[in-house]
Design goal:
- It is a single chain.
- The chain has seven helices and 14 strands.
- With 257 residues, it is α/β, with parallel strands linked by helices.
- Strands 5-4-3-2-1-12-13-14 form an eight-stranded mixed β-sheet, sandwiched between helices. A four-stranded antiparallel β-sheet has the order 6-9-11-10.
- The protein starts with a strand and ends with a helix.
Length: 257
């Protein structure tokens, strides 16, 4: 059997969304893939600080994180790049000028910064653990680094933010738009440079819209049965639902163990 390079999304692919824990059969599949000599990595949009415990706790030596901007190879963080600053600052300035609140992450942590409480007034709290730092003198220009941004713009008003498509963005929660790296494919290709692998030997597993960017024709793409229709349409193979042993059964069906 030729060596494959497997990349797994976390939420909804490796994990049961109701518990946040890795599906037991998926954990067993990972163990058997590694035992068979394959390269096994996470590929997640999560920031490094949010994904690192999961990586360590579940025995992954490698991880593409921060939407493709972070690389953990052989247990060590090798890269963790912020957003393109000029593009991010332009979106920030436009959002502020339009009257929307913006929380800005200027490092790899749960801390977010703003110059006012406008985001909270318009959208409420973010739907994840957060340390809020509101300082009327805050200006991202002072540090010149932006990792993520959260803009309190309603979905029906998104067209007002004409620069939004210059950066990767997602709307996981209705009250706000999140800007973060959206380059999982590029992260996978960079990981291959560390590992010495070929794109033709890559297998990716995903379930949601943010996985579309890594479902590339260079790779063999597996969509989970619980995944979104757009991803299934782009997939080479549609597995059963992840909570119904989809990862394990897909690996078994392809003879990867």
């Amino acid at each position: 059997m030729s060596k494959k390079y497997f990349f797994f999304d976390i939420d909804g692919t490796l994990t049961d969304r109701t518990t946040g824990q890795i599906v037991p059969s998926a954990a067993e599949a990972i163990r058997k893939l590694k035992q068979a000599g394959h390269f096994v990595s996470i590929a997640t949009g999560r920031a490094f600080y949010k994904a690192e415990n999961f990586r360590r706790d579940n025995g992954f030596d490698h991880m593409v994180c921060n939407g493709g901007h972070g690389i953990v190879y052989e247990g060590e963080l090798r890269e963790n790049r912020p957003l393109d600053y000029e593009k991010a600052k332009a979106v920030y300035d436009q959002a502020i000028a339009l009257g929307y609140g913006v929380f800005t992450a200027i490092d790899d942590s749960k801390k977010v910064y703003a110059s006012s409480f406008r985001f909270y007034e318009q959208a409420g709290m973010r739907k994840e653990p957060t340390t809020y730092i509101v300082d009327e003198n805050f200006d991202p220009e002072d540090g010149g680094v932006i990792y993520k941004m959260y803009v309190s713009i309603p979905e029906e008003e998104e067209e007002r933010l004409t620069l939004k498509d210059t950066l990767g963005h997602l709307r996981f929660e209705k009250p706000y738009l999140m800007f973060q790296p959206d380059e999982k494919k590029e992260g996978i290709l960079r990981m291959l440079e560390y590992a010495g692998g070929s794109p033709s030997d890559v297998v990716v597993f995903g379930d949601d819209y943010n996985d579309l960017v890594m479902f590339d024709e260079q790779f063999y793409c597996v969509a989970m049965g619980n995944g979104c229709d757009a991803l299934k349409e782009k997939a080479d193979y549609v597995a059963e639902k992840n909570t119904e042993d989809g990862i394990y059964k897909a690996c078994e069906a392809h003879g990867w163990f």
